[in-house]
Amino acid sequence: MRTDSPVTAATNAATEWLAARPDDFRQRLSIEEIYGADVFGLRAMRERLPKQTYKAFMRTVEEAEPLDLVVADVVASVMKDWAIERGATHYTHWFQPLTGSTAEKHDGMLIPTGDGEIVTQFSGSDLVQGEPDASSFPSGGLRATFEARGYTAWDPTSPAFIVRGPNHGTLCIPTAFVSWTGEALDKKTPLLRSMDAINTQAMRILKLFGTDEGVRCVRTSLGTEQEYFLIDRNLYFARPDLVTCDRTLFGAKPPKGQELEDHYFGAIPQRVIAFMADVEEELYRLGVPIKTRHNEVAPGQYEIAPIYEETNVACDHQMLVMEVLKRVAPRYGLQAILHEKPFAGINGSGKHNNWSLATNTGVNLLDPQDETHTNLQFMVFLCAVLRAVDLHADVLRASIASASNDHRLGANEAPPAIISIYLGDMLTDLVEQLEKGTPKRTLKGGALDLGARTLPQIPRHSGDRNRTSPFAFTGNKFEFRAVGSSAAVSWPNTVMNTIVAASLDSIASELEEATTRKQRKETLEAACKRVLKAIVKEHKRVIFNGDGYSEAWHAEAARRGLPNMRDSVTAFQVFGSRKAKALFKQYKVLSPAELDSRKHIFFEKYTKQIQIESEQMVLIARQHILPAAMRQQTELAEAVMATEGADVDASAARGALQAFSELVDQLRDKVDELDRLDDVHGGDDPAQHAKYLRDKVIPAMEDCRELADRVEVHVSADLWPLPSYREMLFIR
Ligand code: ADP
Ligand code: MG
């Protein structure tokens, strides 16, 4: 029995939106009125805090001075009034446990006292520290379950904000989450530590070159481009695989996917752009500086990107972007899907991670400037990244590994799992000159003549773009493109910061030694050239400007000895290596035990995800697909009998029945096999179990899907119980 209701409902919703006229839209507030309205940021602080308190607070934010509890009390009191004025009734310490999402537990700020009074309650200590029960968050063995104590600690460098709904408002305070012993149980703590590490090392380099006035610290900046899918919510709920796994486990490829390349940058559908405007409004209120929106390559796929910010704030804002996308979509009858590969056969989603380094005075240290060959300081930072990415390609690769990202990397739509750097013509030329000795020129892009008199001459960049590189220099920043769309970006950025800090440390030490030693002292310029030359020689193998999707590159990368970790199970092992442990320990980002706990959690999450998927697959096959197939088979059989009964040659129909029932039998056997396989426990060690799932269960899942998708195209449309790819991707 095929009920058309989800499809009909979706079609009606889409038609309704298409019919909407501009004057049906409600008037919106201007961006000036709403931007940052729900953020207790520096502006609100400056306006509301007593001068002395504000100054003391800024010393904490800018110079990492410990926060005085008296100051905290004043901040808390002002923050509470601000939040209550805006309709907030509760506050929460908002943190990022190792689950990959955010966590919150709300407490009232307006408390009934029992004798008929209401008092407000939110003190400095409520602001600074919280104590959620930590036992239900993953700790990866850092604590036993009975040791439940965990603390949240206010991160004053990321502003508090109000999350609101139609009848509630909650003051959210960004916090770090640590155990009773002080070990990091979250993603923010190591990120902040890694920012300290890179600051210390980058400042050593700047000191050598003579820092500019007012330069007190170096911070990393981050701009993330989030890709996502939107589908009609009626169809979403009719797909148990999307509801439980955020991706389709079955679904035959539609005749039209992305072949015509007509979706990318196309006109944004009415309902979708209305949704986007609402998302942007909510994010503006939260102070997230959204800038870009467009259609992506696959049908039903879109992108949202902010202006870059300091990494810590950008990471918090990225979590908010994902939450707001999910929260707003249902208002438009849509579901936002952040999974890396919700639909087979068309592009998956990534999250480009634009990373750079800047001084507190706003100077971008990765800006090559005009005469780049004279800019030694830039070359030092460039070579530090080069060295870091080559030396620690394995950790970088592992930082973006997940069961869901495995579907995307190397699938000819996303960069391969081999880490390489795209530098473009100008920087590649510069690096080659460095290797030979003294750089003498900077390649220029020149101007582009468009051949029509009415069109302006436009300047051309000195290098083209390369979409196939996992890690590309794009003008004044590096773009790490292998990050998955559902990932919390704090972890890859922690890794990025740490590996670059290590390289800056090594370079700074050599330069400091060479320019200060008693005998055969070198000038800074001579020392730089010598040190950078050696780095280029040793690490240039990681530079690759060609087509990262090609077979030839896989062979070439192997010849160069670059690691190629094809799946997460292989990649996660990196976090157990002595080299990785030493790296994170040396820069005080993660202790060996903390790193081990992450490895454990990554494996655990992987195994749980695959197990949920395979169990869901068996269920859908048995409850939806096989029953529909049996009905089809019965209809075919009845047709054969009826045809024969009418004394007409039924051999063709009989042949079709024969072929179809064989296919269905194969599917049934495969489903039974998968069911048996996923019941086997691959071992107590999650790494062992993950290996088992990768080698045995995933291939069985792939076979199962292949057979079911073949069944789908032979079943009458009115018998097929699941919304099809065409319906999900094209009803908008
Ligand atoms: P693309 O061509 O990759 O779409 P865009 O120019 O749209 O590139 O920028 C992509 C992202 O890079 C944006 O989020 C932008 O804010 C970010 N970005 C730009 N400059 C920097 C920087 N210095 N540090 C970090 N991110 C940056
Ligand atoms: Mg980009």
Task: Tell me what you see in this structure.
- It is a single chain.
- This protein is of the alpha+beta class and 732 residues long.
- Strands 10, 11, 12, 13, 14, 15, 16, 19 and 20 form a nine-stranded mixed sheet that branches. Strands 1, 2, 3, 6, 7, 8 and 9 form a seven-stranded mixed sheet that branches.
- α7 (188-209) runs parallel beside α15 (490-516), α12 runs parallel beside α16 and α21 packs antiparallel against α22.
- The model has no long low-confidence stretch (mean pLDDT 92).
- The chain binds adenosine-5'-diphosphate and magnesium ion.
- Magnesium ion binds at residues 225, 352, 479.
Question: Notable features of this structure?
Answer:
20 strands; 23 helices; single chain; nine-stranded mixed beta sheet; 732 residues; alpha+beta; binds magnesium ion; seven-stranded mixed beta sheet; binds adenosine-5'-diphosphate
